[in-house]
Amino acid sequence: MIVLFGATGDLAGRELLPGLFRLAKAGLLPTRYRIVGSARSTLTDDEFRERARRAVVEFGKVEPTDEEWRAFADSLSYGAATPAQPQPLLDAVDAAEKALGGHPRRLYHLAVPPIAFAPTIGMLAETDLAKNARIIVEKPFGTDLASARALNDTIHATFDESQVFRIDHFLGKESVDNILALRFANGLFEPIWNRDHISYVQIDVPETLGIEGRAAFFEQTGTFRDMIVTHLFQVLGFVAMEPPTSLTAKHLRDETTKVFEAMPLLDPGRVVRGQFRGYRDEPGVDPQSQTETFLAARVEVDNWRWSGVPFYLRSGKALRQKRQVVTLGFKEPPLRMFPLDRDTRDATPSNKLVIEFDDPGWIAARFQAKEPGAALRLGEATMTFRYADSFCTQYALAGYERLILEALLGDQSLFTRADGIERLWEVSAPLLDSPPPVEAYAPGSWGPDSIDRLIAPHHWYLPDSP
Ligand code: BG6
Question: pTM score, two decimals?
């Protein structure tokens, strides 16, 4: 039985209900299951089913047939709850469990604002709902080290770490998990995946959307907490980790945590915070707001593999393109025997491995090749992998779908661990304590001009889909 807290919210509508429907349609949910929606507002079961149907039609990838919808809708019910008045939820859970029979396992998904995490967990503890349960906790997990520690303490007072699934949906993306396959299932890439061959790494997640009416959330959160300390650092963990002993949750998370431990504290002098022009005019935004809608940073991983290799991270709202890209820039060969191509933008055109991890994702190796003809001139060439060229992509799962499934199966490999999260907040402390002032940027640009100084002598590199 799944209880979806925040069932009337944005995340539930955009991702979770369509994702659960898709899992049900694909036959990936248990044969007998129930989904209980919960939020503060009072709704009947039918009203909740109708909201869920509208969400699935609007945000799901395929429109359900009447028959598919009926089968899914039969499993849905609703029970309002506040910490002071949980009774409607208790009744709904009781009815759902009676319908299932026996002692079904419980999975709680806390798709609620961070401020509601602790009261919701308190309610679960007080009402006995915590028994036989797993819990998915949304991001951002805390707002700094002290609050993340306090939240971990609150959770651990009721749940053992083995029952806790801190979700970061980037870790469920096909192309992010494929980084593990690319690195550790091939003899081709891993031998060059280190400081001897790589001169820099860029992790770039520009978005075209603005804040889309989420002023209350965004003013409190900002891009660093919404995107960097969460999604981009987790992707960095996969790019930078040592080969794990195995892909089990313990070994995989030991390795990402070791990466986070090797990151020196962030240097605010190597961070650019930006705010798009017009942000302060959005309803609900403070006209003097210093919240960043853009952040670029140079970070390091000071270990044997990566010492001296900068990792450039960038993410922001209202930028020119929506992309999710990891680029590895390789060192040049020791001897330059070919003339430099004056037309190339990059003064030192180096080999690059580009991993676009926004669904459906692709990987491209950029390299120099001889242009056909009498002269020995070089041109940039590309070898590309696209999922659809090699695989049937019908069964590809979106990040949330994959992770909800893993939580149902009890596999924590792709979820973050308490110590890893706390270390990331520790690394972030100097920036949170002394953030540089926000610099304005034009909507539709790539962010404030000073990001070019941050990355020099390299360049922000974002090739179009090959
Ligand atoms: C969410 C952030 O976690 O991730 C959003 O809160 C962001 O601000 C989103 O837009 C990006 O993820 P995706 O996978 O939907 O592009």
Answer: 0.95
